Amino acid sequence: MYYIDPHIHMVSRTTDDYETLAKMGCVAVSEPAFWAGYDRGSVDGFRDYFEQLTAFEPKRAGWYGIQHFTWLCINAKEAENVALSREVIAMIPEFLDRPGVLGIGEIGLNKNTRNEATVFLEHIDLAVKTNEQILIHTPHLEDKYQGTRMILDMLTGDGRLQRDRVLVDHVEEHTVGLVLDQGFWAGMTLYPVSKCTPQRACDMVEIYGPERLLVNSAGDWGPSKPTAVPDFIMEMRKRGHAESLIRRVVYENPLKFFGQSRGFRFNSPLDA
Ligand SMILES: [Zn+2]
């Protein structure tokens, strides 16, 4: 089955991973900007990173027949440095009209601090003013519930936002309902050690239905599995779900969400 991984950090993966994804039916990936494993020292570090995300990484994906899309921001961890964050936010528009850029992300909260919230709101303001979509990271484990509540309060407090152009990622059982009820898209991240498993993601599709739900691997340089979306497909098949339902979650839903971005041009493998 063709599928799309809507949240995967390919800069931290090998070309072998691209080849494996392609063999498993992956036709497109979307890569949000994230933490590099160290705090970057200046705005130029981000400019170089955005260059990599928008110029080289799509080329590398293309070698395996995979289309590559991206999101730009300064992540929540480095947002503690508000002065640097403001320099990055002012620089982002240099890249927004490049092919394959889908919007602002992954912004969000990490430790739910005041500085993180300040930078989150300034990203939202940029997204609204530039008419970009938004992809949001929610915090880990013990900080997730409170952080998700804070994020939803900030989002719903801005009357300018179009909620169906915002994706709130890394939802779990205790946050998915909050996100969907408010009209946002929700992403389930399949991780070997935390977040969600393929089984729990299937449970959530069974409980909430496929509307505005996405599944991703978040594959990065930590313990993660870039082929987690095919694991979800297998689990859905084992449970006897229709292929049309599975395809809706792993293929049609990402297309519908991404399709609202002006930077999204998709060459459908079905047209080939
Ligand atoms: Zn991520």
From TrEMBL:
Keywords: Hydrolase, Metal-binding. InterPro entries: Metal_Hydrolase, TatD-like, UCP005295. One of its GO terms (molecular function) is metal ion binding. The keyword Metal-binding applies. Belongs to the metallo-dependent hydrolases superfamily. PANTHER family: HYDROLASE TATD (PTHR42658:SF1). This is Hydrolase.
